[in-house]
Amino acid sequence: MTATRSRASLYQKFLIPILLSTLGYVLIATLALSLLRSNMIDDRISKIRNLSEVALNVLNGFHQRALAGEFDQPTAQKLAKEALRQLRYDKTNYYFSYTYDGTCMLLPTLPEREGKNFIDLKDPNGFLFVKALIDNARTSHEPVFYAFPRSANTPPIPKAAITLDFEPWGWIIGTGIYIDDVDAQFRRTALLLAVVIIPVTLLIAGGTFYFVRTTVRELNQIIATLTEDANQVSTVTQQISQANLSLAESSSEQAASLEETVAAIEEISSMTKRNAESAHHARDLSAEARTSAETGVTRTNEMQTELEAIQAAGEEMRLAMDGIKASSDNVSQIIKKIDEIAFQTNILALNAAVEAARAGEAGTGFAVVAEEVRSLALRAANAAKETAEMIENSVKQSQKGVVVNDKVTERISGIVQKSAGLQSSLEEITKKTRNVDDLVSEIARGSEEQRTGLDQIAKAASEMDRATQQNAACAEENSGATEDLRHRADELRKAAASLMSLATGREVTVAIDDRPSALLPPKSENSPVLAGTRHNSARPQNKVPASHQ
Predict the structure, then answer these.
(1) pTM tops 0.85
(2) What distance in Å separates the CA atoms of residue 356 and residue 358, rounded to the nearest whole number?
């Protein structure tokens, strides 16, 4: 499952620098305006400081003339005031003067105030500006900021003044300049900067905002696609792992079946070998029986010409018949064994066909060979059955010959009459033994064919065993490859989770199953995946949540 923890999203991380940049622009503009106003006021202060020094030089000039005796000090003061009263700069600005105790000595715009004490005069803000003008003139010479009307019946406006101390007369002399025009120019400049900076800032912020929103949207789409691909790769690796597991199990079962089949083939081969050996032995016995029969025919012919030797020949014939009977009994036992071997071969061939069917397409050739072996086994069984019947008939005929031979000693006189029948019987025996010889040869050839077929089956089984081992090896290699692919899919999912955490501002963790992929169960529909992904082959039309735009 996925776990989330709130933190700053990529959108918020981009938005913060935009806001900080905008705030920085505003602060820089404010600082620039403040510096501009300060510089403007400093320029004015420097100007009025120079003008105040001019006024101070005027007072000093009249004072020096009074000291020279050109006129007395009151006259010098009067002349100095009139001279300063006439001085104007910037058309409206003027000089003023106060005594140390606050008595107004010169004020061209409000002459009615001259000669009066204004030490306690305050501006609209409650500031004792006259006292401050006197104190600064005698100490720091720093400017004094206060509010004062331009003329009578006008409201006070901001003003800055510089006063200098003229100690010989106990006066302070100075001039001031109204700074409302500075404030007006400051406002005009601020408005101009606002008109320029604010749209540019908004344009930059808007463009950056649009770029960030577009980037975040595309990033979310990429994250969704990566997550979908990672989940699909994980699903495919699980399916491949299951296929490898099934292939490995099937290969194991097939290998076990092949082992059983090979064991059965070896047993069939051993039985076929014994069958062939028995067939060869039966063929030898049949040849002996045929030779004995031919000897009997010859002696029967001789018996007709040599009656005096019939008794001895009859005894020899009886012995030969006993040998034929014994050989026939042995052949019957061998044929019975051949029949049993053919029956077992048929059963083993059926088992081999069943195992070939279980092996599927890989056992098709094996099934054909097993069917041929079964057919040969049936043919061998039929041949053995026919041989047994013939041998049984031969045994019966041999028994008849024995009976006849036993009666030879009792009926020597009837031997001649029955010699023709005995000759016919012996010829029949010879014919039957030839047939037995042919059947035994057929059995031997069938055994050879069975052995050849079993060799082919063994070869096919060996090929199937190699194929099974190759399948198992391929399944193992595929398991390793799918395991590596699963780890890569997990890394891809982790990367997608990291990108999603960066984009959404919520920490996303992915649960990774560390079990071997070949042992993992197939992923079900309820398997945990990253939020916003689906398990299907089609990629989703990703939509970015409004909160991330």
Answers:
(1) no
(2) 5
